[in-house]
Amino acid sequence: MDQDQPKLNEEFLHMQKLAGLITEEEYKVQSQELDLMNLSNKISKKVDLIKQHLKNQGYDV
User: Fold this and answer.
1) DSSP code of residue 27
2) Nearest-angstrom CA–CA distance, 37 and 15
3) pTM of the entire structure?
4) By the 8 A CB rule, do 13 and 5 touch?
């Protein structure tokens, strides 16, 4: 479900825009924020994998 969440958020934003609840500009800003949040989550997961690998190699991380 974790992977479905960004898609659901994007679809929710799109529906709000279509319904006239948010403007095109608000949609773009919020969409960019979602993209940045998703990128941040991906980077965080990669950092965690690197930390785990270093711990497995005996490093104190």
Assistant:
1) H
2) 20
3) 0.72
4) no
Place of tokens 């960004």: 6
CB count, 10 Å around CB of 46? 10
Q: Is 38 within 8 Å of 6 (Cβ atoms)? A: yes
- Asked whether 34 and 13 are in contact (CB, 8 A), the reply is yes
3-class DSSP assignment, residue 37? helix
pLDDT tens-digit map of 29-57: 999 999 999 999 999 999 999 999 999 99
Residue where the block lists tokens 């990128």: 39
Angle between helices 24-56 and 4-18 (to 10 degrees): 170
Task: Look up residue 40 and give its two tokens.
Answer: 């941040």
The terminus-to-terminus CA distance of the chain in angstroms comes to 30
